[in-house]
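Contributing: when you submit paired examples, paste them exactly as shown. First protein:
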Amino acid sequence: MRSSVLRATASAAGALLALALLAAPPPATAAGPSAPARPAAASPAEGDGCDPIDPAACLLPFPSDWYTRPDPSTPTGRRVALRTTLRNSIGIPVDPAEWNRSDGFSPGSMLLARVPGVDVGRSGVAPITDIGSSLRPDAPVVIVDTATGERVPYWAELDANADTADRRALIVRPARNLREGHHYAVAFRNLRGADGAAIAPGAAFARILGPDLPAADPLRARQRAERAVLAGLARHGVGRAGLYLAWDFTVASRQGLSGRMLKIRDDALAGLGDGSPGFAVTQVADDVDEQIGREVKGFLLAPSYLDQPGGPPGSAFRYGADGLPSRLPGNLQLVAFQCEIPKSAFTKAARPALYGHGLLGKESEVGAGNVKAMAAEHGFAFCATKWSGMADEDIPNVLTALADISRFRTVADRLQQGMLNFIVLGRAMTRGFARDKAFQDGAGKPLIDPSAGLAYDGNSQGGIMGGALTAVSPDLRRSVLGVPAMNYSTLLNRSADFPTYEQVLSRFYPDKLDQQIGLGLIQMLWDRGEANGYAWHMTDRPLPGTPKHRVLMHIAFGDHQVAPVAAEVEARTIGARVHAPALTPGRSPDKVPFWDLPALGADPYDGSALVLWDSGSPAPPLTNTPPTEGRDPHSDPRGAALARRQKAVFLSTGQVVDVCGGAPCVITP
């Protein structure tokens, strides 16, 4: 999810590490950082805690309030209470302790169930090409907000990666994120097989639907819980006729999703006050090329809230008594940075901007040709640091997290520390760098103008993570998200970058149904460190202590690395409009292209927007598999001068200008 050269470099490193793990699996005991205090005892014994609705697939359906308990201390009134039986191939169970800190499930949850023999076409289930049909009154899959009665749009698909029909997940993906803290009921009804015959509910669910079971019956408790689900559906017009399966779940609250990040942000910035973090310049190069007048490298110090000194890969949050991250006194993270200052800054000070690198990359990507061109053409000084948690140094730890999902908290926690590092770098750019001679001309005049306001531009992973950074930053007002999306549980199977890393996941979780459950579990933690957990607050519904923002999303049609369909979900959630016409007629396979995304209208448009850039690549597959046909257009938007001009105007003024002359934005590769 980055330029082809960087993608090849990280893929090669990942492949070597993946092969090493495949050849030598880890020991049969989970090793990791010091464990935080657990909110509830975990019992991962086989068969313990499974939903009896589907005896052949523990944890399904998922997500489900069967795996929560009442907790009046949380904003939702519930707390996740998993006692998971998901185990890897060497017998290590997923330790649910970190999940059990949550007060609900992901706002981007894919809904997972097993429906042996279902034919989604014969059943009329809404496909990825016709999201609007998911809201039909007679839709066979219904997701309803039990408080408001609002129906949730979605598309559904059978897992195209499954080896056998019996272990193939039916995946329902919301087309707009679910509301934080809300309670939802789900119904599958009138499902049919390939022969058109109705599919009867499983034996357990059929008994649950029947007369009251005796107190000693193992299904009695499940039946009692199901009564409330059925009543909630009935209140909103969904009865029992043709019902195959029904369940409910609660979405995590705003506090549950972003509370950790806001705690470390507020604590760190309180320590800085009105000043700059400490930093040291280690290298200065002048007249780098025809575009860049000065390149500056160095380090700054950021407070670290991780449980190991300096917060290296594999560390996780150190929690305090309040259940939020707590800093060990004196714990600091050494944060490398690199800045590219255009030659024009020696005539007129440049606008400061943060740059976000691609998948498992590093800060030196700020020296890429397209970033230098943006700086030189439009007077921006770009500075970058690593996305701690998903940088080059994190590759081994990411692979171990795919081998033992319990370790994924080490990725999610470092991602939040990484966002803090970006915020601290932004403070240095606007409150400290201008006073250092490395950022001044020969006469002592600053080369960066802090009064111009801090901006953000990132690509690929930098577009994904940049959405989360935008939502929590008190200093950003406008961000450009290049070839972005959100929700890795949707993205991974659809990315050409994933197969290398999927080797490790498949070695340690070989069952494809378990893999989808694992991705659903991982997303609950990933939400804390990527845009999916922050999307509702990225633009007009800001988080506490944070201003409103505007976001410009640049999408590559047919992208091999970041699925455009997931970018559309993000755009709907943040309230963005789409440049229209977005594509030439016939390019999109959708019945209604860009469903529920209104056109920009006025030119220039004051607000957040999605602009699609088409360089002729084929449309993506309609399944949850990566593109394999044609060239990858992933890097095309950032390489186009027109796109850079649109970005520059937006970052400077907040306006989206039509640089494509009222036509689709077409790029000649």
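Second protein:
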Amino acid sequence: MTPVPFLRSPPFAGIASSTAAISRSADNGDVAAPVSDEILALLSQFRVGGDFWGHRPHGVHLVVREGVPVDGGALAGLWPQQIGIVPGTAGAPTYGLQGVRLPACCDPWALVAQARAVHATGDDDLALIAGLLDVPLIGPDGVQVDPAMLRMTLKARLAAATYRDCFTGAPVDAAQVIMQLADWRRHLDGNRGISAASGMAFWKREAIGHFLWDGLEAPPFLSARRGLRRARQQGGALAIWPSRVPPETVGEAAAMGVPVARVEDGFLRSRGLGAALHPPGSVVVDRTGIYYNARAANDLETLLATHDFPQTLVDRAARLRHRVCMAGVTKYGQEAGQMIVLPMGRRTVLAVGQVEDDLSVRLGGAGVDGNLDFLARVRRAEPDAWIVYRPHPDVQAGHRKGHLPDASVLAHADAIDTGAPLMELVQAVDDVHVLSSLTGFEALMRGCAVTVHGMPFYAGWGLTRDLAKATGRRGRQLSVDQLVAGTLILYPRYIDPVTRLPCGPEVMVDRMANGSTPPVTWLIRLRMLQGKLRRFMTLFAEFLHG
């Protein structure tokens, strides 16, 4: 019987195993690549291999593979509930051992790490992990196995497989597969303990189910009230889309002792935004707050303030930033409009409008009262500059609040632009003024000067000119690539629009650059028509009122 590769993919819900596969047992003609001690060190660091996505029972002091005899002396001082019996092959003898029969799919790393000993055969996943974690392995003969022998067995097991990039199909080595599995583990671990999800738009639910799958299941979509009740009963958290649950939900959760995980669109996502009903390609799941709320701490702010960014991560972020800029990827998609003509010999400023009732404006706007107030502040800060105002695309599409009549805009700005390629415009002006827009972050990635009137997540780290009062939680000096590492690599989750597998930001950037987005459905077309009608009514009302 061909052994199952030690490095293998989780059984992602709704995804064919052939799509997700990252390894297969080598054919006889395949030449096994040697495996170094560095590979084993990576395994120990990231704890991948075996069924790492499985159940994590607690309180297990002795781990026994069913069918392996255990000497009575090994059970001294243990209660049956401290002995975990991992299912073996069908019909394996139990030898009368009393203990807790564990689920078939358990995280072997979590099991072995808490055990004082493991009883299994020398080629068992449990045994190989015991050898890496320095936990004694007792074989079927009752004799402890030399850890060096276990490491040699693991090296042979790793070499007896071939590996592939599940996103491209290209062959890769074991180290690359370990890093992919490490990303998956981080994604799945971030979903542990979420009991229910509330406030998710129906057209986002399939994607959200993939984002919140924890290796065993995805949380059910329930009303906020039912979700709170389920979370309290299970001792878990409630995932919410903040703008789509009743305002009292968070307070009720606190009163009930239910943790809340806030889910929002990430910083890189499929074209079309919410206005066109394209499901998100990226989300963030924040357990302490949310990145756009400057009034309270959140996971991203804490990460940026405290994380020890290793050089390998910073180098990865630099490559990612270069990739993003070269591909022309932005949250708003690539645009093919005509570039606006900027005056020569004069300081030029781009003022970026936003959706006025967006939570990022209400909670991160630092008291700025809408787009008109923002424009007036830009003019006060730049009295002699030539200012071009860029309205938000969702406002232009007629879907969201924040439209300003041209006369009101031109009382403070010199021009209005709605069609120039945004990133080309960002790089052409002398300064980009934002309230809390993501455009400010994208401008920083491209080496542009950014002035911030609010307090978005990228302000307060020494990279922007900040006009709002600083919070006491920021102040650490970061490089742009450290900011990118936290914001685009560590904080969000991504789903590949092609395979529907969790992926890294590099895959998402490549897909966006290649135009790999979901097809335009009848629902998207209806939503676009609704926006055009609303836009027409707004302009018609302006015409009637002069």
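If you have annotations for the second protein, write them as plain sentences, like these:
The first strand starts at residue 23 and ends at 25.
The domain at 311-513 is CATH 3.40.50 (Rossmann fold).
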